[in-house]
Structures are given as structure tokens and as C-alpha cells.
Amino acid sequence: MGAAVFFGCTFIAFGPALALCLLTVAGDPLRVIILVAGAFFWLVSLLLASLIWFISVQLSDRNDAQLQYGLLLFGAAVSVLLQEAFRFAYFKLLKKADEGLVTLSEDGRPPISIKQMAYVSGLAFGIISGLFSVINILADSIGPGTVGIHGDSPHYFITSAFLTMALVFLHTFWGTIFFDACEKRRYGTLGLVVTSHLVTSGLAKGRRAIPSWSTRPCSSRVKTERCSSVWHPS
């Protein structure tokens, strides 16, 4: 059962993104390079956000639960802002690269348009972001344990998979809209992208019931080697 849940949730979360990569990215080496570079930019933003959050936690009172919850929201907001800042930096880098490709082109036209760059970079941000958000959940889905065996919701894994799929698509949309707004200097649209990203992150992390995993030991009466992993609000 664990393998079925793992592969099912994996294909739900990343199946559409994999199809997009195979159909629209894999056939063009330049798009593959843009995809990998976009994922690298997102990773750098995550590294900086993690460093800021880690330092803030180390300097704070770890016994203050309310403060730690506030730092969690602070870290999420900083992460979003850094992601958008690196998205802008990636846009500037791609614009410079586009100008260089035009000079090398025989017909004076770039081999890839800015809209295509926006789509590929947004897809890169979405794939790597979704991977980091769901990888631990997928690892837990293999087992040992069964979600919902003690009356909790059994839909935690599949819900997380659909949310990850939505996150991948959202990053793709955000990347396309963001690049177009930067190209046309539409600052209101840029603010809309950043605000919607903050709201989405807040909906995911700004709950007072923060999900956590606990493992209840198996009863000695139950002749099984597997314990039950239960998801509950802490």
C-alpha cells in the first residue's frame, strides 16, 4: 500500500510538470539550460531564506511558542520576497543573454523569445519548489504506518500532492506574468504577483494548527511490525 500511495502522489504532484518538460522543454538544449539555471536561482533564494530564519531562531527564545510561530511566518514571508527578488535577477540575466544571442544569430533574431524564457523559468521555479515542499511527505508515505487508522483524515498525502501540483502551476503562471510585467514596466502587475505569492504562502503556513507527524507505538496485542503514523494538529 505504501508504494501505491508514494507513486500515486508523486505522479499527481509532478505528472503534469513532467509532461510539460518532455513536450516543451526537453527537445531544446537552450530551454533545458534555462530550466536548470532557474532551479539553481530558486535554490540560492531558499538557502538565503533558511539562513535568515536559522539566525533569527538562534537569537530568539526557543521556549516562547508564540514567538517561534511568528518567526515561522516571518521566514515564509522572507522566503517569498527572496524568491521574487531572484526571479527579477534571473529576468535581468536572461535579458542580457538574449541580447548576446541576438548578436550571434545570423538572421538577427533571438533563438528563444522572452515569453518562452518566462515560461521555462517559471516552470523551473515551480518544479524545484514543489519538490522541496513535498519530498519529506512522499518519504513518509512509503511507511511504515497508515494515515487515518486512528480516526484522522486519510487524505493527507493526496491533498499534499494536489497542493504541490497547484504550486508548480502557480509558479509557472507567476513567472510568465512577472517577466511580461518587467518587460512592459507594469509595476502594478509586479505587485500583484508578489502579493498573490505572499497570500498563497500565508494560506499554506499561516495556520494556527501546524501539521506535524507523530508515531504511535503498536500495541503488544497487535501481531505486526508496523506502527501507525498519525497526522494531527500540534
Automatic annotation (TrEMBL):
Name used for this protein in its record: Gamma-secretase subunit APH-1
Bilayer topology term: Multi-pass membrane protein
Keywords, sorted A to Z: Membrane, Notch signaling pathway, Transmembrane, Transmembrane helix
Function of the protein: Potential subunit of the gamma-secretase complex, an endoprotease complex that catalyzes the intramembrane cleavage of integral proteins such as Notch receptors.
Broad class of where this protein is predominantly found: membrane
Ranges in coiled-coil conformation: none
Subunit structure: Component of the gamma-secretase complex.
Residue ranges crossing the lipid bilayer per the database entry: 6-25, 32-55, 67-86, 118-138, 158-179
Database matches in InterPro entries: Aph-1 (IPR009294)
Species whose genome carries this gene: Gekko japonicus (Schlegel's Japanese gecko)
Localization (cell): Membrane
Family membership noted in the UniProt record: Belongs to the APH-1 family.
UniProt keyword Transit peptide present: no
Record flagged with keyword Cell wall biogenesis/degradation: no
